[in-house]
Amino acid sequence: MANYELIIEQRQPTCGGRAPTKSEIRMVTADDPVAYVQSLEPGCELEVTHNDDGSIVIKLDHNGLWVKYEFTED
């Protein structure tokens, strides 16, 4: 298992003066970042990108709003 810094960015409706994106940072331990996201977002089609810096970016559409999970190994 590896430790990751996980940044989650979600697009959200801007009604009520809210920002168009909501961001959250977590520290997580996972064997496989893709399986981790699949457990959080069952049934969603995932777009996975492995960056040159070693980070893993997983994007998906959740009920018409995009969500991006970015894993950087700690």
How do the strands and helices of this protein lay out in sequence?
Layout: E1 2-11, E2 21-30, H1 33-40, E3 46-50, E4 56-62, E5 65-73
Antiparallel strand pairs: 1-2, 1-5, 3-4, 4-5
Q: What shape does the CA trace take?
A: globular
Strand order of the largest sheet: 2-1-5-4-3
Largest sheet: 5 strands, antiparallel
The rounded distance between the terminal residues' Cα atoms is 11 Å
Please report the number of helical segments.
Answer: 1
Structural class: mainly beta
Strand content: over 45%
The overall strand count is 5
* H/E topology pattern: EEHEEE
Average predicted confidence as pLDDT: 91
- Give the low-confidence spans: none
Fraction of residues in H or I helices: 10-25%
Rounded radius of gyration (Å)? 13 Å
